Amino acid sequence: MPNPQFTKPWHGIPRENIEWNPTIIEDACIGCGTCVTGCSRLVYRFDFERKKPVVIDPLNCMVGCTTCANTCPAQAIVFPPLESILALEGLPEVRHAVEDDLLNRRDILVSPLSIPHPDRIVSLSVSGIEPVSPEVIRVTLTPVEAGECFCEFSAGQYIELWQPGSSHLSRSYSIANAPHGDGSITLHIRRVESGRFTAWAFNEMKVGDQLQARGPLGSFTMRSAPDTPLLFIAGGTGLAPVLALLEQQVTFSPERDMRLVWGMKHAADFYALDTLHLLASRAPNLKVVLAAEDLTSFEGPTSKHLDWIEGNVLDAMEEDNALSILRDLYIAGPPAMLREIARDLDRRGVSRERVHMDSFGV
Ligand SMILES: Cc1cc2nc3c(=O)[nH]c(=O)nc-3n(C[C@H](O)[C@H](O)[C@H](O)COP(=O)(O)OP(=O)(O)OC[C@H]3O[C@@H](n4cnc5c(N)ncnc54)[C@H](O)[C@@H]3O)c2cc1C
Ligand code: SF4
Ligand code: SF4
């Protein structure tokens, strides 16, 4: 019998709607019984006549668990691909159920080893909201109290932001500029379907709103020796921390040999081209390549400093031959893009020590 204790909905999804249970490869099984006795959820029983395990209560199996397969000495147990579970975790309702559960059971789940967070919490006022593409807004935040700012942050870092009065956790956004004297910072926020924070940011946030921010956070900062050539790679709003690093370099080392490859799905989504043009015009050895898989209705950049290709960032890297000399790499964007690039760099034998990555989470 399925045990109600084990067959509760998984982060809001009815357990019977999730295909996750072991399958025994009978021919490979040596009948040792490790899986039967090792599973505390009584998924298995043992057929003493045949000396084989039998999956009796598959719904008792814990979603995502593969312990019995890992400990089977004959490797006779298989599961559906883990990607099926990772895809469920990408659903807004699952992500939100996890977040709500964390907050509802905060008293029980809080770590007894919690230490006061060393970073600063600062009140910032929304001083500008500018749609820069159909899917991205550029938001400027200014300290509420002059001098109460993240003035000492390093280019490439990010902050955590709280939506005023929200019941969900904070969200992270990269600072898209190098430090400025007045303490103001800009963020590039991309619209996310069914997103909690971004729904508020796109539909309700207005100039004058005050937000709590924590930071500066993260270690995606310049680590390279001053004479090392650099390759920046950005996917989508991964441009934000890369812009900050570029601004820093153009200010302090304008002669440096630098490449930026920026990828988007649709060419119409590129934004901040005026800023890139300005930076490139001040840095004679900076070359910018825009890579878009869909170039429909793209008229091409209006500047000699910007080049573009049809394809993704990996195609652009092939064409540009930018890796033919040794560069340090600074890569920011969605995790799927980062994984693909990491595989490509491994294949090319690029040392991981040269590679710095900033993953935008989920
Ligand atoms: C270090 C760091 C820096 C970041 N910097 C930026 C930045 O500069 N600009 C920016 O726009 N975002 C950035 N992000 C992502 C950002 O923190 C939020 O995750 C994003 O804005 C979605 O929040 P939400 O509350 O609207 O969505 P949620 O309600 O948290 O999620 C809704 C749905 O969208 C999916 N989802 C959530 N985030 C993303 C995402 N980034 N890409 C694709 N799907 C997603 C979830 O899986 C879920 O299905 C950064 C993340 C990290 C960890
Ligand atoms: S994966 Fe875990 S819960 Fe599922 S049958 Fe194996 S040991 Fe039991
Ligand atoms: S642990 Fe593996 S070999 Fe042992 S009974 Fe289970 S399936 Fe068969």
UniProtKB/TrEMBL annotation:
InterPro entries: 4Fe4S_Fe-S-bd (IPR017896), Cbr1-like_FAD-bd_dom (IPR008333), FAD-bd_FR_type (IPR017927), FNR_nucleotide-bd (IPR039261), MRET (IPR050415), OxRdtase_FAD/NAD-bd (IPR001433), Riboflavin_synthase-like_b-brl (IPR017938). Transmembrane segments: none annotated. It comes from the Bacteria. Residues 20-49, 52-82 form the 4Fe-4S ferredoxin-type domain. Gene3D superfamilies: 3.30.70.20, Nucleotide-binding domain of ferredoxin-NADP reductase (FNR) module, Translation factors. PANTHER family: NADH OXIDOREDUCTASE HCR, PROTEIN RFBI. This is FAD-binding oxidoreductase. It comes from Halomonas gemina. The lineage of its organism: Bacteria, Pseudomonadati, Pseudomonadota, Gammaproteobacteria, Oceanospirillales.
